[in-house]
Amino acid sequence: MADKELFSSDETMLKSSDVPFIPEPSSGYDMGISTFSQVIFPDIPDFFPPEKDVTVSYILTEIEPTSRDWVGLFRVGWASPRDYTTYVWSPKPRLDESGNLSQCITFKAYQLPKDDSEFYQFCYVTRNGYVRGASTPFQFRLCTENDCLVEVEDESGMIILKTKSDALEDQLSKVNQEKKLLEVEMESLIQSKENLETSLKKVSTELSSAEEKYRSCDDKNKELQASLGEATAEQVKLLQRLEKAEKRIEKTKCDLATAQTTIDKLHQDIKSLEAEVAAAKQDRMLEKVNYEEEIKIRELMMQEKNVEMNGLRDEIKVIYLFEHNFLNLQFNILQFAT
Which pairs count as long-range contacts for 115-119, CB under 8 Å and 24+ apart, including other chains? Predict the structure, then answer.
């Protein structure tokens, strides 16, 4: 909307004055202010045919256009925008297919110089009289045969002259050869692509098979882990049982030690009794008759002691047998645990 208002107000000014505004030299105009790269003139030929209309296209990059901007024709060597030969007002630009802000203008044949040897260039000048773009130099004359010659470097590195058409034909031939090479390379790349796709399918199949095997191994691993968990729980139970058995064994050992102490004491008592009996027999041999009753009593006591000792011996045998069986049981438990 602002651009539309700017162009509409400028159109009113354009009606009131058809002469471009150019700063007076005393107003401090400085060529350094101009930025020639803000407007680009693409595809400017080396020669324009004289006495014919010339259409010029240009692209605006970093500039805000107005209807008071203009494109002038300048002789190369100009020092001020006042040195223009002729000019055309710049119409409102538009967006082209590439998204660039561009426009075209046409210089009528009557405005342009005749055939001469001077060099000219187009310049884009803003409403404030500052140059914002300049084209490459060109001439207004017909193209001669010498103008159509170009320098070309041959295979040996020598510089030779050829007509533009021959040079273009050579370039076209090279381009065609490069095209054929690229086509061959393209076919090779297509074949390589097909081979890679085949290999990719094979790898995908192998990967699927490997994933299936992995899933199977994973299931087996889970089963083994479950079995390991059960075995660990069973091992814990066995260790607990073994600990209890070891405690019982320790208690039995203590009991056996106590029983052995008792047996040793009984053996000492028996030896003492036997010594007493022998002494009594020796001392009372002569008193046998008098003491027969007492001896019988003592013999009865001895018999009771022997019965008690035999009972103790049987008990010791049972304890030893129990210990032996318990040790065998412990050994079997340890074998089962390992």
Answer: 115/50, 115/51, 115/140, 115/141, 115/142, 116/140, 116/141, 117/141, 118/75, 118/76, 119/75, 119/76
